[in-house]
From TrEMBL:
It comes from Apilactobacillus ozensis DSM 23829 = JCM 17196. Keywords: ATP-binding, Lipid biosynthesis, Lipid metabolism, Lyase, Nucleotide-binding. InterPro entries: GHMP_kinase_C_sf, Mev_decarb, Mev_diP_decarb, MVD-like_N, Mvd1_C, Ribosomal_Su5_D2-typ_SF, Ribsml_uS5_D2-typ_fold_subgr. This is diphosphomevalonate decarboxylase. Residues 179-312 form the Mvd1 C-terminal domain. Its EC number is 4.1.1.33. Coiled coil: none annotated.
Length: 326
């Protein structure tokens, strides 16, 4: 296997799930209980540079210039790549997040998608998008979708080999934007992994959630195909609320909402009552994402800036798939 001489750099964008992934049937391989569907965003991304070297005695890993070389999660992920490439060298990894880390804005999705692309190429592997998607999944489930631009689906599968993402539509033809309202950029108290596990094991509604996701997915894909913005928005909003109902019905119950989250949700509902076509979604964190058309961005921002700062409001269009930027 021929290692790269210099650093290989890849950029991957975050994706926000419109039909959520929440819960695994295999924790080690990160195999989910249901298919999910997402929109990749252009404003949030991770740039990661990797070089394998025989001069290192351990992996040297930096995230936003902070030494995180003791991250078991990343070292284990690099071990998977070393095994695939039949190499033993350790890696230099330099990663920069243009997205708050662990705050419910899918930084792990862009992070592991970028790491999968850069590290696999640096190790001499030439992987297809499908293979990259399967690899990225081993670091973070949602990363399997960040390999792709536009609308992407994660096919749940049952094994390491048949659980991967596929591109549904890229470039996106629908007039769709996402306004992220960043209410808290601090790491969340209960990680997605811990939250999922608790929900799967203790919520009495979990099986009903999985069945409903199957219905939601079919409707969402049809809406994309038919360029039906309102149907996609409605399904995305209800799917998100059902996911959060799992956290509140778990034992012990927990929630990712805060007071500001509820304020944004109420603002969206008020805007909608006044004729503005917009919908909200939330992941495992307090930040709210508003799905809207281009013509309504100014009106929505004006409503939000009555309460929140301009810096907290980030407008994003559909983004592209993983790219090498050397």
């Amino acid at each position: 296997m021929h290692l790269s001489n210099g650093f290989i750099t890849a950029r991957a964008h975050t994706n926000i799930a419109l039909i959520k992934y929440w819960g695994k049937k295999n924790d080690d391989l990160i195999i989910p209980n249901n298919n999910s569907l997402s929109l990749t965003l252009d404003e949030f991304y991770t740039d990661t540079s990797v070089k394998f070297s025989n001069e290192l005695s351990k992996d040297s890993i930096f995230l936003d210039d902070v030494d995180i070389s003791n991250s078991t999660k990343i070292v284990n992920f690099l071990d998977i790549i070393r095994e695939k490439a039949s190499i033993s060298e350790y890696a230099y990894v330099k990663s920069y997040n243009n997205v708050p880390t662990s705050a419910g804005l899918a930084s792990s999705a862009s992070g592991f998608a970028a790491l999968a692309a850069a590290a696999s190429k640096a190790a001499g592997l030439q992987l297809t998008s499908k293979e990259l998607s399967k690899l990225a999944r081993r670091g973070s489930g949602s990363a399997t979708r960040s390999i792709f631009g536009g609308f992407a689906e994660w096919i749940k599968g049952n094994t390491d080999n048949d659980s991967y993402g596929v591109e549904i539509e890229n470039p996106v033809t629908m007039d769709i934007n996402m306004i992220a309202v960043v209410l808290n950029d601090q790491p969340k108290k209960i990680s997605s992994r811990v939250g999922m596990k608790r929900s799967v094991e203790t919520s009495p509604y979990y099986n009903a959630w999985v069945k409903q996701c199957e219905v939601d997915l079919i409707k969402a894909k049809t809406a994309i195909k038919e360029n039906d913005f309102n149907t996609l928005g409605k399904i995305s909003e209800s799917n998100a609320m059902r996911m959060h109902a799992l956290t509140m019905s778990a034992e012990p119950a927990f929630m990712y909402f805060n007071n500001d989250s509820i304020q944004v949700i109420n603002s969206v509902k008020t805007l909608r009552e006044n004729g503005v076509e917009c919908y909200f979604t939330m992941d495992a964190g307090p930040n709210v994402k508003i799905i809207c058309k281009s013509k309504d961005i100014k009106k929505i921002k004006a409503a939000l800036t009555k309460t929140f700062n301009d810096e907290q409001i980030v407008v994003s269009k559909p983004g592209c798939g993983v790219q090498f930027i050397n």
